[in-house]
């Protein structure tokens, strides 16, 4: 009997900007992350447990100048019953108490001019970008990596910190400029982000003096009026986008007489790819690597 070829899985690949502050300008992120990860030599030592779900960076390697990440996540005690889709019978899960289902998530990092970008696979049951950010911060703060982190730290009053932000797509500003009236606009800036200083005029001296991790600027138009498109916060967003420094931004306004809310999260740089799967239904690591190279090339050619 012929084996049925598993169907490819459609995955969304999103482009993020990785910023690691607190190190020397021009620091090699890939070498730094490889040192941290390699120093935790065993799989059990690489498991990050922020809550009910656990995450681990199981493989980290350089390939063709890029950094390849293979994360897995699991939840202990997750043993749902099994449904046979042919006869619709339900049976007990065969996993033992010490076994758990693994969910893989892939990512690829690359130095792109003056910034570092990461292409991340969106997996509903896997390791989300926010958890990747927390995981990399956990690597930096891991007690076994203290010596590595201390050597890389420029100022002891400014600890090394990680920021992973979705790169805004050009369509975000296209929607904003098409608005007849802009009712409100907000932008969030994380401290590690090099764009922090670009909003200094809008943030005021409090940005420098508060020692905050992040700041959010929000402007509301006067009743019946519109925020200016060529000045103020909208102009600052445009400038930050052109410098590849735009953080999370939200704009509300009217398009063709209807109220519309647009954000960088809904208009981030992304691409869908079909990834080959193995007989057990998981995405093939080899197929993912090939597709990531393809997508990374296309998505970074114009940025």
TrEMBL record:
InterPro entries: DUF4747 (IPR031832). This is DUF4747 family protein. It comes from Roseimaritima multifibrata.
